[in-house]
Amino acid sequence: MPAFEPVLTRNFAVPDSQTLRAYESRGGYQASRKAITEMDPDKVVQIVKDSELRGRGGAGFPCGLKWSFLPKDRQETFMCVNGDESEPATFNNRLLIERDPHQFIEGILISCFATKAATAYVYLRFEYIHAFRIMERAIAEAREAGHLGKNIYGSGFDLEIYCHRGAGAYICGEETGLIESLEGKRGWPRIKPPFPAIEGAFRKPTVVNNVETLACVPHIIERGADWFKSIGTPKSYGPKLYCVSGHVNKQVCVELPLGVTTRELIEDHAGGVWKGRKVKATVPGGISMGVMSADEMDVKLDFEDIKKTGCLGLGTAAVTVMDDQTSMVDYLYNTSRFFAHESCGQCTPCREGTGWMYKIFKRIKAGGGRLEDLDVLTMMANNMGLTPGTTICGLADGAAWPVKNVLAKFRPELEEYIKKNQSSKPLVTPLQKAIAAGTVAEPVALGGRVYPAPQPALRSPGGS
Description:
By secondary structure, the chain is α/β, with parallel strands linked by helices. 40% of the residues lie in helices and 13% in strands.
């Protein structure tokens, strides 16, 4: 197999890599000229379909196939690009925007030409202030140079790109939640169908893609679908940006072929586990994907092999490493707290289920855990989410999968924690006992202050 040549990050080390001058000096915007002046939209769509490029935002849905869902007779199309990147420990999109924004803009340009979209919205996470400013400057540069605006390259194709900043809501990473927020409404997912390809932003056919997904498109047009499929593993083709953080000596984002292992990422790129410790568990692609044990470090991090571990999927390929001194109770407590806070509340199983999980783990940490809590958590995790068909979006699945995986792989540790961490304080109050028994409790018995019964108001002699 030939040595891997990074393409998505090839300009990162170039001085002033975020400028148009630097990007064009490295062959930038040649792929967009080729696509717009030498091809028709259907041909571009077919090349992307042939490359089998899969979405890098988490779900891994084939990009070209998504484009082909648009109605043939549509009069107007919108492109929405998900740059929210709210999955914890994920930062590959931010680096692509901050260090090489014109590569991303060229990807938008080609993709909009392919889908016949004249307007593109880049939905950026509010906290990405630096990335937002770089993106705004890059769009202005591209427009001034004729890569955006009216009659691009004399082809008659028009395109405008607008940056829209979110408000830090995790749920707006879901494509219809993103669209709702973009329209100025409350950011929560829509019931589907209709899907965005039929009725999306402003009730028009809409394509929603991820930043890294569109950054791959110029290279596919430039080098061809066969080149793209020569990288990676079957059904998981192309380069991928892997983030590594947590208990490692070096937090990194590296570009590698799809299908590397967690062991390779930790040992060859992240400097090994910190403090000379060993790996206990890893999160393969954002906390919503679940947990891999130390015995699964040689499983390939691609869209297919990862399923062997029982994880939800590859996700964003943001690997978080936990060393052998990490408490899995602490991990689940933090994870459940996050999802309980980020649930939009629209679906009852998610709204109530994420809250109940958080309360159970909070009680376990306080010393009030019971062994039967683990069975209750398993039941809840198996009955909430898009996979069992009880919610509109997959946030509940993301909340459930870490619980499922940890209970399957680390249950003895949780049982031991519950047995050894029992609080001496009474966790059930007299009032709770009275309510459970259906009896009336006297205030004195509850340890509370006794207040006199309210007296009727006195009326004045001459009035009411």
